[in-house]
Amino acid sequence: MSSQVETLVNKEYKHGWVTDIESDVAPPGLSEDIVRLISAKKREPAWLLAWRLKAYRGWLKMLEPHSWPNIRYTPVDYQSISYYSAPRTAKPLGSLDDVDPKLLETYKKLGIPLSEQKILAGVAVDAIFDSVSVGTTYKAKLAEQGIIFCSFGEAVQEHPELVRKYLGSVVPASDNFFAALNAAVFSDGSFVYVPKGVRCPLELSTYFRINSASTGQFERTLIVADEGAYVSYLEGCTAPKRDENQLHAAVVELVALEGATIKYSTVQNWYAGDEQGKGGIYNFVTKRGKCAGNRSKISWTQVETGSAITWKYPSVILQGDDTVGEFYSVAVVNGHQQADTGTKMIHMGRNSRSTIVSKGISAGQGQNSYRGLVKVLPKAAGSRNYTQCDSMLIGNRCGAHTFPYIDVQNSTSSTEHEASTSKIGEDQIFYLKQRGLNTENAISMIVNGFCKEVFQELPMEFAVEAQKLLGISLEGSVG
Amino acid sequence: MSEAVLQRLDIRAGTAIAEGPDWLEPVRRAAADHFAKVGFPTSRDEEWRFTPVGPIAQGTWRPSPGVAAGVSADRLAPFVFGQAEWSTLVFVNGAYSEALSRILELPQGVRAGSLAEALRGDDAVLRTHLARHAPIDGSPFTALNTAGFRDGGLLHVPAGLDLERPVHFVHVTTPDATGTAIHPRNLIVIERGARASVIESYVTLAPDGVYWTNPVTEVAAAAGSWLEHTRIQRESERAHHVGLTHVDQERDSHYRSFSMAMGGALARHNLHVRLNDENIETLMYGLYLTRGEQVVDNHTAIFHDQPNCRSWEVYKGVLDGRSRAVFNGKVFVQPEAQKTDAKQTNRNLLLSDLARVDTKPQLEIFADDVKCTHGATVGRLDDVALFYARSRGVPREAAERLLTYAFAAEVIEEVALEPVRNELDRLVLDRLEARRGGAAGRG
Predict the structure, then answer these.
(1) Which label site among A7, A162, A274, B261 has the fewest CB atoms less than 10 Å from its CB?
(2) 3 state SS for chain A
């Protein structure tokens, strides 16, 4: 059994290759000049440059958080990172034909449905190659309904009033160390605006991909759903194999106005490092949504299987009355991976409701932490929270940690928190084996059952992918 | 600034350090040095994030005056459960009072008495256990206690003995304690296969007194021992109480704790239990009743270091007025601690819209073959249960009191000593009655 385990554990990372194309890369290092350079390259208006500089100056005064997160790593050398890299393009892109064929090749390997597949899949894709958005599809179809779905850079040029109104309104530039860094140097990302009363007919999707060596990725995503609108957004990632750690500090802001619903789903499978824990992505992400209007709803679903370190707390500020916040998460750590992830639900409006379902799976020498905050403010009368956070451990070299903070400040609200820890039982495996399943499939089935509540929140295509990913991540972890 | 605190409390140059055996002196000095280095915690320390210790840190406290006049057995009657046949050790403002204490016949070899007295002789039990369990770098308050304690209760039960009747440590403050800091130190050593029941009370004859009690209790439960430990904290609602109980359990031992907290403007109790061997059982029950502007904080930590142990924890709180409760329960399960079975529950009932709860049940698990669960709830009385009671003709107020009492009674029931259980019942009912009487002067 153990040799079988070895081979499975030592399986090469499937998506580990580098596409060799010329990049327009800024010299490593971070200074006001670099911030100005990024802003100038992107032909940004003066107010945005001022916003970036303010964030940069604030960032200089902040310290990288090392005490409270339950993760260990050597501090990042911010001066050795290049903060800008754009694929070379001679002219603005008119159609797919103008795209560098090597890029298209990359997408094909990742299975991004940029061609006919997208029609079959019903997916509009805004593909991000490193930092600049190169191909946006279905724009016309979405535009018919007044939906804006474009790269962040484009939004700054074409809809500056919307960007200016909402940028930083949920995650202020001063929010935390990594959010401030992102605000100063963010290169690109996605922008979505769904107008009043419109139900977005497609699942919007962006594939992020880190490519150029030693280029940190600093995406910024902003999604605004106007009154009564609905949008479902998918984010998925893979990254090529690399030896040095790559920093990824993204910011995602969601704004749901009165009666609007935003559903945000993520599957994250970045390179997690080799068997010694060397390399792998540092995933330090700030994601937050604001239910600004009454009866609005924001739902986060995430499946986190990759990255050497994940530091991520998709949160919801329940500002309006009768608002709903949801967080469904599966986090898997294997090898030397570390994950400190969870959510914050800030109840401000009356009768606001939130649900948290978190499933953590630890294998190998992985460390998995759930860290959550449920805060009910005095005015949030009649609010409710339900939290369930389950851990599964595979082997005794890994760890599962839960740090739930519950802070309730009025008597008409109620919060419930439940957590459990369990293992895959010998008898469960035995049962499935005598039904003809092999060990790997048995484990995969048990784990998928453990995560079912989260997977059923995912859009169809993602759910299938997530189940496969989980199987791959855990292969060989039980002997 | 921390050095100034030590000077003012007469700890640096004071009698406390000079007194006692030689082996204790370096321990005291190290503790004082540790406090001088770290000082009082702030809200930036994760362990003290929700517990504002400002009123203690900024206060100018004097050393405690020792025994005060005017304390009679009659005045202590409300605190001793009417049990004349229980051994009772009384400490007034931190010092042992022989006149008020009553030590009944104990099995041969059992020692119950003043720690200070025992320290005057060279004592192997103290040498092995005193200040050997509660680490001085665990908390600045523990360091301060270790550096400056004068007296407290000592109970030593030799191997195989069964202490049939409970021993009660009563720490009482009088109006003379106003403005002072008291550092009671208790030591409970239950040897192999022995059985005992200990009650530890913190009470006051100065219901409006402003003072600061900083107790530390160390418990050593040897292999196969059995201990029931009941802690009742009824300080003045204007006083401050920061206490630590540290328990070390050995193989096959059974430790059962009940902790009641209802006094203090700021009251904190840390209960740390370390399971050092296999097949240990630990039960921890807690109840806190808060009102007015009180801040009552319970921090518990269970260290599952070895396999095949069981721990069970239930803490419940009833909050009124503008009070605030903090709960933090940690369960650590080390890689070796397979087959651990740990369950932890914290439930809070809010009677007022202005009350606030911060609860943080925390699990840190490094072993796979374990059963660990925790749960926490915050809410008000169940509307359906209220409706049911009212539909049976019970008036609203009575129904509310009934349900609130029932909520608290679930943990009180776990106290094995009937007289103590009855007294706890009475305290809860009185508190609910006072609320109704509008004597919510503080509520």
Answers:
(1) A7
(2) CHHHHHHHHCCCCCCCCCCCCCEEECCCCCCHHHHHHHHHHCCCCHHHHHHHHHHHHHHHCCCCCCCCCCCCCCCCCHHHCECCEEECCCCCCCCHHHCCHHHHHHHHHHCCCCCHHHHHHCEEEEEEECCEEEEECCHHHHHHCCCEEEEHHHHHHHCHHHHHHHCCCCCCCCCCHHHHHHHHHCCCCEEEEECCCCEEEEEEEEEEECCCCCECECCEEEEEECCCCEEEEEEEEECCCCCCCEEECCEEEEEECCCCEEEEEEEEECCCCCCCCCCCEEEEEEEEEEECCCCCEEEEEEEECCCCEEEECCEEEECCCCCEEEEEEEEEECCCCEEEECCEEEECCCCCEEEEEEEEEECCCCEEEEEEEEEECCCCCCCEEEEEEEEEECCCCCEEEEEEEEEECCCCCEEEEEEEEEECCHHHHHHHHHCCCCHHHHHHHHHHHHCHHHHCCCCHHHHHHHHHHHHHHHCCCCC
Residue B403 in contact with partner chain A when CB distance is under 8 A: no
Q: Which of A134, A246, A248, A245 is nearest to A185 (CA)?
A: A248
Enter the tokens of residue A411.
């008597």
Q: What is the pLDDT of residue A424?
A: 80
Interface residue of A396, A397, A403, A420 to substitute, partner B, most B CBs within 10 Å:
A396
Write out the residues of chain A at the interface with chain B, using a CB-CB cutoff of 8 A: 68, 376, 378, 381, 391, 393-423
| Domain boundaries of chain B, sorted by first residue | 2-277
Rounded CA gap, A384 and A138, in Å? 39
Q: Spell out which residues of chain B touch residue A377, defining contact as CB-CB under 8 Å.
A: none
- Count of C-beta atoms within a 10 Å radius of residue B345: 18
**Among the listed residues B175, B171, B200, the one whose alpha carbon sits nearest the alpha carbon of residue B183:** B171
Task: Indicate the SS3 state at residue B175.
Answer: helix
pLDDT at A71: 83
Q: Is the model's pLDDT at A276 over the cut of 90?
A: no
- Among A358, A402, A477, which would you mutate to test the B interface (most chain B Cβ atoms within 10 Å of its Cβ)? A402
* Number of other CB atoms surrounding residue B377 within 10 Å: 20
User: Tens digits of per-residue pLDDT, A35-60?
Assistant: 998 888 888 999 999 999 999 999 99
Please answer yes or no on whether B362 and A396 come within 8 Å at the CB atom. Answer: no
- Give residue B160's identity as a one-letter amino acid code: G
The count of CB pairs under 8 A between chains A and B is 112
Using the predicted structure, report yes or no on whether residue A203 has a pLDDT greater than 50: yes
- CA dist B248 and B218 (Å) reads 8
Residues of A in contact with B44 (CB under 8 A): none
Q: What is the pLDDT of residue A394?
A: 85
Contact status, residue A152 vs residue A187, Cβ threshold 8 Å: no
| Count of beta carbons in the 10 Å neighbourhood of residue A116 | 8
Three-state SS for B355?
coil
The one-letter amino acid code at A211 reads N
Model pTM? 0.85
Average pLDDT over residues A188-206: 88
SS3 state at B240: strand
Under DSSP, is residue B78 helix (H, G, I), strand (E, B) or coil? helix
Please give the helix or strand (H or E) that residue B374 lies within, else none.
strand B371-379
Question: Per this entry, what is the length of chain A?
Answer: 479
Say what the ipTM of the complex is. Answer: 0.80
Q: For chain B, what is the mean pLDDT?
A: 92
Tokens of A478: 């039980």
Under the banding of pLDDT at 50, 70 and 90, the label for residue A90 is very low
Name the residue of chain B whose CA is nearest to A421's CA: B372
Do A399 and A337 meet the contact criterion of CB atoms below 8 Å apart?
Answer: no
Chain A CB contacts of B377 under 8 Å are 414-417
How far is A381 from chain B, CA to nearest CA, in Å?
A: 9
For tokens 């990594």, name the residue.
A178
